[in-house]
Amino acid sequence: MNGKAPGPVAPREPDGAVVRPTPTKTLNELDELRNQAHTGPQVDPELAAAVGFTHFDVTSSQDNLITVLLTREDLHLLASQTLVRVRSREDNRAYLGVVVRGPFAEPNAVPANSTMAIGVVTHGKKLAYTFDYHGRAEIEIVGEEVEGTLKPPRFRPRPQSPVFLLDEAESARVLGVGGDMCLGLVVGYEKMEARLNPRDKSILPRHTGIIGTTGGGKSTTVATLIHRAQADGIATIVFDVEGEYTHVDQPTDHAAMLEALKRRGQRPQGVKDLHIHHLTGRDSLNPRHRNKHSFSLKFSSLSPYALAEILDMSDAQQERFLKAYDVTKLLLEDFNIYPQTEEERRQVLDVDELSTGFPHMTIDHVLDVVSAYIYSLSDEGKSETRGRSRATPRKQASLLEENDDAEADPDVTAKAPSRGLMLRTEFKSNFGRVMARVMAQSSRHEISWKALASKLHRLRRLGIFDVGHEQGVDYESMLTPGRVSVIDLSDTDSPQLNNLVIADILRGLQEAQERRYERANAKDQSVTPVLIIIEEAHEFLSANRIAQMPVLFEQVAKIAKRGRKRWMGLVFVTQLPQHLPNEVLGLINNFVIHKIADSSVISRMQKTAGSIDESLWNRVSRLAPGQALVSFSNFTRPLMVAVDPAPVKRLLVE
């Protein structure tokens, strides 16, 4: 003790903290800040509507991508794919952009990966304290607004430029998603629908690919597209290899689909005017449908070159097939089957055998000639040939002249042998003439001829060609406005047979649409748009066979190119796009891409659909069923879309 009286003791809080009065200077500074907040400059009303501001660029910044920072309160205003307008204040330029990454939440003051931030989050149960945070988003500049038009940007928005959210009406206009045909809702918006104008020549006639793994929603997309196209008066033809769409005239009864339709404010509804077509001798998965038609194919309508490719003939077999085909043409004229008139003789000159076959020729005609070749190479046939070879050239030539039966030398005009060769067609009435044509274009290699005969016999046993009581496909009726024609191939159990049917019907549809287009033009009228959907397209045009099928591909390419001008659009549907050749993918302008899990397939598709940015491709492997990356020529940019549920009944087949 020093003898002095103790001074006053500062009062203490219960926790032991010493309470000291706030210094007068500090109180005065706080009062001044408070007064400035009330009386200082007010926020610019225009800036009050901003959802964020552009950030400074860093060394990792990319061309056409801008970072936008936004407050915690405005974070909910931006969503993926939303459109924004950036007003660059320093140079008075305006840009339109779309959110391609984020928005992400980041803590203020410290990095998100700092020890302090991680500690605060992981100890959230124990700590009342946390950081305030802000939002960050990446936007892609769509273009610069110049006098009401959107032009490619030459500059970048300056830092600290305000960013404004476009409303849905303006966003829809900028994105080009208007039209009568709705595909679904654009992801990132409450009510914006992805729509198409089916009467715009730059859309549906520019062919479409519907791609994705099994279970991703392709079939639902196809069923929805069928319903929308029919409602718009489009003639729709579906090559249905599984029979999934044979009941689309009935409303869906699938519980999940009914619930999804209810959420969209839609109702189940079947399409009108459904017609089902199936091969003769094959069944349909809707056998009691009132508009069910069986049909056979005409051998004469198939290109011999395409037929050789589809049947996978070897080079030797194809050479002999084409030789037999040429001899058959000569015999058809010899036997006065075709051509018969001068007009038909002129028509023969216009036959393009890369696109179609020879009129009135049947598979039995060709088989008769092939059998004659095989017979000529047999021991009995060789003996017959040696006997003929002793005849004079004048007598041999007489076999090839019209009405030469009476004039021909009895030693030369051979009768049909009692064994070894049985002809099925009109050719059997003059075996000698058939053999004379065969000998005039002689051939060797009996084994190749027998292999060819085996393939043609298997094709004939299918019973699909030139069936007497069966009609061919009525292409004109298929092109009726608003009609849905399903080609039910579910009972064929043969990709080769399916390819024969698809190739033949595609050619017939193209020719019929050509005629309709010319008639409409002559009357200054519009022609009915046609949509042709090919399921399992990778089976029809396989990448590992495209080198062996150049004629078939050229047929499809011709239909695709000419179809654009004649309102005929093709839709290729596949879960194996890696099996489609680049030549086919090159025909596709529009894409509906559902979930693809294989990164190598995504990488290949990126090269094909170059207009789709990487940020969207990164989401393809994680898409939910029914969601799709949609790129149509009328859209300003590709969009993520929740495709509408199908209101029609679709068979769930394995």
Automatic annotation (TrEMBL):
Disordered, as annotated region: 1-22, 382-413
InterPro entries, A to Z: HerA-like (IPR008571), HerA_central (IPR002789), P-loop_NTPase (IPR027417)
Top-level division of the source organism's lineage: Bacteria
Ranges of residues in domain Helicase HerA central: 183-507
Compositionally biased region (Acidic residues): 401-410
SUPFAM superfamilies recorded: P-loop containing nucleoside triphosphate hydrolases (SSF52540)
PANTHER family reported in the protein's UniProt record: HELICASE HERA CENTRAL DOMAIN-CONTAINING PROTEIN (PTHR42957:SF2), HELICASE MJ1565-RELATED (PTHR42957)
This protein's name: Helicase HerA central domain-containing protein
